[in-house]
Request: fold
Amino acid sequence: MTPSRLLSLPRKPRCSWAIPAAGRALVASFPRSLCVVFCALICFSFSAAVRGDDLTAGFDAANKLYDGGKFAEAVAAYQNLAGSGQGSAALYFNLGNALFKSGEVGRAIAAYRCAERIAPRDPDVQANLQFARSQVQGPSLAPGRWQRWLSALTIDEWTFLTAAALWTLFGLLILLQWRPALKAALRNYVVTGALAALLLCACLGCALAEAAPARLAVVIARDVSVRSGPLDEAKSVFTVQDGAEVRVLDQKDDWIQVAADPSRIGWLRRTQVVLQ
Amino acid sequence: MFGPWLKNVVPGRGHGKPWLAAPFAAAFLWLTLSLAGAATFTASLDRDVVPVGESVALSLTFTGTSSQSAPSLPPIENLQIDYVGPSSQYSFENGKVNSSITHNFSVTPRRPGEFTIPAFTVTLEGQKLTSQPLTLKAIQAAAPSADAINSGSQLAFLRLLLPKKEFYVGECVAAELDVYEHSRVRNLDQFRLTAFPADGFSLGKMVEAQDHQAQVGNAVYRVIPLRFPLRAIKTGSFTAGPVTATAVVSIPSANRRRDPFDPFGMLGGGMEQKQLTLASDTETLQVLPLPRENVPADFNGAIGSYTLAISAGPTNVTVGDPITVRIQISGHGDLDSLTLPEQPAWHDFKTYPPTAKVQAADPLGLQGTKTFEQIVVPQNADIRQIPPVSFSYFDSDAKSYRTLTQPAVPLTVRPAGSVAMPMVLGQNRSGQDNAPPARDLIPNKQRLGGLVRLGPPLVRQSWFLALQGVPLLAFVSALAWRKRTEMLANNPRLRRQRRVAQVLRDGLIQLRQLADANKSDAFFATLFRLLQEQLGERLDLPASAITEAVIDEHLRPRAVPESTLAPLRELFQVCNLARYAPIKTRQELAAVIPKFETVLRELQNLKV
Reply:
């Protein structure tokens, strides 16, 4: 890289206002292609930071609405933030609180579940989710022990663990190819690594299956009659209350088939639930 | 019914073999003729005299057919007739097939008296057949007399124990039916209640309690108590009983012989079985309506004797926060049917449907505690208390209504958004501490926290999946590298071939450099060495052993074409000549290299 090539760079590159003097000095020592990548990264980070600042301001404003007892307005504000494509456990947690205070237990449970997916080990989220669930009357699907265990980690955490196990396993296998003499010494590690990778793959598969879209639904209306067929004229089989969690078995037109437990299966309108 | 089957076996009409069809057709003809006997129809009862409430079996038998459907019997007042099912019989007698079908009914008289089951007329294969009328006498099963019981002559008997004779409609009490079993009875089996007349009452599920011994007269009896809830459902004077039951008892045979193999009767030898019909006394009961005076406004039908306790928490809340009010009603009565009365004073609260849990202290569920948990949400900051909770019931012992009231629970309700005050739990007047405050919502988070992009998880993103291919590819590469290394280690010829190829590549570069530098001696020495390496590898000979003589000694016998040998010989001769008359010019040296490369290619293509 010659000085003349460096001089050929635009004197004020795009987003150069985002690069401090020390950064520009650093840029000067990189090849041009690396400079372009660096600038792009800086721009991306800055725009993300701007978006983050906007979200934080909106979040604070929504919190003020909540503290002022304007729960419906707070719900709208939180939902507006959640619709931006980015979110956080705190955002969904506060949305759940605002919905609960507005008397919408079902939607609150749905929001807490979103927060739980982002931060499954957050004790506040767990506490409020349990509290909201305790207010629900009638049949509702209770998560089993295995499901609770799987949901202790997010899907991405399960993915990282599984990938780490696979990389470690392949690393050991590559080492064995490179140094066959280590075969005896590494055998136990390889077997353990293979078992761990297998187990984690299975866990990841189960976690993915559990978190599959439209697998669970939360009822958001009161005294919903679950019918024997996807028709308004069908006989009412049982009734579920606002906040009841049900497993989705099938969908047909505007109706979904749900199960509150293995013996309670029926159809209800899609507008009466929030699909998870 | 055999039509379709015959269609396939009759010769000339089906696909089967004709010689197989003949015996089947004959058998069918024989069966049809055999069955075509004279049909009869009979009706019979297994007994003519039966206690009220006990069932007898009515059998309607059709002989000469096996496909007669069950006739419908006319309704007879106070006689319950239930269809049990059919049974068919086939028998061969003197080469003739006899068939019959019997339709069985269960007939149960509901009051004493004589009943006549009329004659039935049925049409069977074109014939009209009529059964004979039957007479059934129903007698009232009576409890044994006190003298009979005290003398110890009764093997078993029943006693109906009711806690009271006067009830109020809706009242539920625990009643008991005791089965007394004489000490002589070794086993009481097949106990079945046949009737439990109790008009004006409904019976709950029976529960068997712990049995005990009792002395009655001169005999010792084992008493098996059967307890059940009895609820008065309509007003009036009613008769309960006699409760009747049947049982089979085993008693030692009076004239048994001592079995040498079972001297103590442990194996059941010498036992005699008897079927008994048991009956209890009759009780006359009065069911009174609930008084219409002084009915509390919140009375909702509870009858019994109860106490009321209430607790609530948390009591320091913000508007919109839920409060759990726990209401416990303890005492005796029908706990399952207890409901929480409407509390009109709770109009400042938003309420949710209460949950209820019964902790019964007895197996019938008539004594214990029912706990209601009601979630209430204060709607404004002016609320200072949870209003008093009241519950009214009718005390059947005192024959009056009672209203239980628990005092208001003090509340601190803050406007939404205010700072939380230290929590002070309210206390009721009885001095009991409130239950631990119901868990409340944990307040909002003030920090947005780490943002995540709401999209598909990593595992569903193609770049991440592609990245996971890296270790796999690395492993495959390492595996291939290792296999190649092992292959070379086990194949010295191949190893030499690869080494020579490398030597030739380096040598050609060196030749060009030597030609450029016009170093003739070094050039031809290198050229000769490269020829030796290549020929040595092709002929599997040591390189040092290669001279021009190998052309005639090894290559020519192997039918190497002259077009290859001639330039090779020329190169050898140039190398030899250069030792004595070195080529001086750079161009001459450079001109040798293409010839050498041509020879190398031809040698490498040789199949030696």
